[in-house]
Amino acid sequence: MKALLKKKLLIYIFAFVFVAVFATSLSLFFVKQKSKSYVFIFPSAENGSYIVERRNLSNDPAQGVIQLYVDELLLGSTVERTKLIFSSNTRVNSCFLRGNILYLDLSDDLLSIEKSSFPINEGIELLRENILKNFSNINKIELFIGGKFVASMEK
Length: 155
What we know:
The structure is a single chain. With 155 residues, the chain is α+β, with helices and mostly antiparallel strands. Helices cover 37% and strands 28% of the residues. It is built from 3 helices and 6 strands. The protein has a 4-stranded mixed sheet, covered by helices on one side. Strand 1 and strand 2 form a beta hairpin. It is elongated, with a radius of gyration of 23 Å.
């Protein structure tokens, strides 16, 4: 009788563990489907090289995937020894895609120079490289700063 009870208990434990592992795997699968991996390139603070970082971003953010990407790029790297692409107060005023052209308006805080940020011209080029590397549907970026046209950048 004890042997039969022990056998049933082992079967129940095995079934519970199996169901728990399956449920965990299934939930992780669906969570992973709600995000996509993007590459971020930041300038190193120590030498002239670049730091490449990979982050998972939501597939369906309220502000749109491209603006979320640019917002994350402006926030900077998670690695300590990197510079900001632009000054720390720089924000996205507007960002929209029409056809294959991205219209991106950044705040004029970008023009303030900080010790911890990259030179503006190099920052604009790195912004272009980051966006075009991650969004293959974009062929051209029209950049505005504080609502004023600054540059037209193509692939």
